[in-house]
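S.,

Sequence below, as promised.
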Amino acid sequence: MSIDKLTSSTNPNILQTSNSLFINGKDDYASKLTIGQVIEARVMRHHEGNRYSVNLNGKEKVVDSANPLQPGELIEGRVKSLGQKIEIQRIRTAANSDNNALERKANQALLSGTPNETNNSDISFAKRLFAEKQVLLSRTELHLLKNLLSTNYSSTAVVLSALAIKKTGLELTRESIIAVTKALTDTSLQGAKNAILDIAVLEIESNIQVTSIPQGIIKELAENIKSYAFLNDNSELAASTDIDGNNSSDMNNAQDNGEKNLAHWILNIQDEGSINHRLMTFPIWLGDKLIEIRMAFFDQERSKESSFNTQPPFKKMVFSVDLEELGTVTASAITYGSHMTLSLTGDNTKSTSYMANYIDTLKTLISSMGWNVDSLEYATMNNTEFDSATHSVIEHYINKDSVSRLV
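The prediction came back faster than expected:
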């Protein structure tokens, strides 16, 4: 049996400070890997020094690992960099799975629920999702989650928020789950007061004027609304764009701002993956009205030593805005070098029809910003429960950050 070997020994200085596996990047298997891809490796045997044979999708490969590996150990890792040597960052090991058996049984028992305690379908959803993502909760966290599932908060939002918080590495608290749940289900677009401060740093890091795209699109749509006659009499929109009155007490406002800032802080925690993200809210003027746009920005990070640097990174923006005449407008823009794909979503058929009439105008606008528009699509999405920008960040945490999720 032939075993693929590394062409040269991996730098020992890297191994000493790394929790990763390194494999030879010069073969057919390695050429099919992508940044962010999650793969599993079963340890077969130990060779000399830091070298081990592992089974990768039925193929035997030799890897370098500073940390001792045990035959039979199952390792889950994420491709962190490509090149002559491929780095696979370990994210989970099954070596100690027996030690977690009691914890898993406790999780299953505490999430089993009864009809008198919590809706069975909610518990089943929580059990299935937490098991799928292999996230364990402490007994205190489990009781907290069950209690919140019996409240008036959206059960789906509570489960997604709790799972996302755990994925950031934080322990669950009632305050954190409620804050993120409210951010996920809040479509009023009144974000944290200091969110605007993120933009200057973000634009420097990403080399993109991140506000220009949403501002240009929203302003272009808004400027033509008045001439679009059938939008003026729209009971469908009136119901969806009802604005809360200013009857809240100062205490409630202070509490709301505190929760929004807490959610903003949690949802901007970066993981160790290959995609960075920011969630922010920023204002723009439309005539005499000041409105807010909530946006999530994703930026593919690349290893300085990787040959992948020769290719432009993927970037993605998801933003939403609430317009009196159009309802909630959501857009998703994906860029690759100077190329862009854009999709627009309205929350009712009339606003979507309106946006469809301005596709050519929007293409011209975006082209004037220096982008090549590969595609521009529009669709209607009724009864949207979640804010799209916040939901995209939560989805990013839960599914970790494969580049395929950007494209």
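DSSP finds 14 helices and twelve strands in the chain.

Coffee later?
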